[in-house]
């Protein structure tokens, strides 16, 4: 399994998402502004998650770029790329309500697939994201709460558990 997946990194990612959710609120009078906030938060969270993985690998004196990590990224990155491409394609349209569901579904699919090369707990997190994404497709009014739940609370909870079980 990928020992370089950082529980602390996931936890920090969750804090960023909870902060973004608090900032944007549960009502989005201006969806474009809210989505911009979430996009900035996602970039910051990605950087913190990467930094957490680097620090954990260094602390454990392990190579960050081993075969399992490469497989993990091969599973995760295409799903993230699809989510980014669909976001860019939908931003100038009247279909902004689809973007949060797409984010949760793409991230969930990527984490679920990548979890085959990581701690099993990540597969559960990916499945939880897929569930939230599916709900978000059919209940757009719940999307702000589902974003906070998935990208915020799930990262916090699974990050703590990953840290507790796998040391970092």
In whole angstroms, how far apart are the ends?
14 Å
Helicity, as a percent range: over 70%
Rg (C-alpha, Å): 15 Å
- The total beta strand count reads 0
Question: Which regions are unreliable across 5 or more consecutive residues at pLDDT < 50?
Answer: none
Largest sheet: none
Class based on secondary structure composition and strand pairing: mainly alpha
User: Helix tally?
Assistant: 6
- Which series of helices and strands comes N to C? HHHHHH
Quick one: overall form? globular
Q: Quote the average pLDDT.
A: 92
Assess the beta-strand content as a share of residues: under 5%
Give a structural overview.
- With 168 residues, this protein is an all-alpha fold.
- The chain is 77% helix and 0% strand.
- It has six helices and no strands.
- It has helices spanning 7-24, 31-59, 67-90, 99-114, 120-138, 143-166.
- Helix 3 (67-90) runs antiparallel to helix 4, helix 4 packs antiparallel against helix 5 (120-138) and helix 5 (120-138) runs antiparallel to helix 6 (143-166).
- The longest helix is centred in the first third of the chain and has 29 residues, at 31-59.
- It is globular, with a radius of gyration of 15 Å.
- The two termini are 14 Å apart.
- The mean pLDDT is 92.
